[in-house]
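Let's sit down with a protein and look at its sequence and fold side by side. Which protein we use is up to you, so please pick one and set it down. Label the sequence line and the structure token line clearly, so we can match residues to local backbone shapes. Go ahead whenever you are ready, and we will take it from there:

***
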Amino acid sequence: MSQPSRLVCELVDRRDEYCCVRCGRYLIGNPASRHHRKLRSQASRAEVHNPSNLILLCGTGTTGCHGWVHAHPAEACRYGWMVRSYREAWDIAVLSKKHGWIFLDDDGGWIHVEDEEDIEANERKALI
């Protein structure tokens, strides 16, 4: 199975300020992983390792916030920590503990969600 490039890993780590997006825990020296918002099995080769599809979470796929996200997919979709297979990760806002609601881009950046309607649309997308 392929892995994100070193550059993508650095972009994601810096963008998320080396902290868990869900709980805000500082991750240097703590168990952590880069989570694929749209699961590897559902994403195309072109998008699977894009920075907009990756977030830092504490724990592994079975522990910490990473484990919680996989155990609660419906709620995780509501907060943008997971993305449905037929959606684009860059188009789904993420609730970040440090920054509030943000959109992630593929350059390792983010844009703050200014419009409350964007958040409501995000929640509707999670239900579809």
Remarks:
- The longest helix spans residues 116-127.
- The CA atoms of residues 41 and 48 lie 9 Å apart.
- The beta strands are 32-36, 54-58, 94-96, 100-104, 110-112.
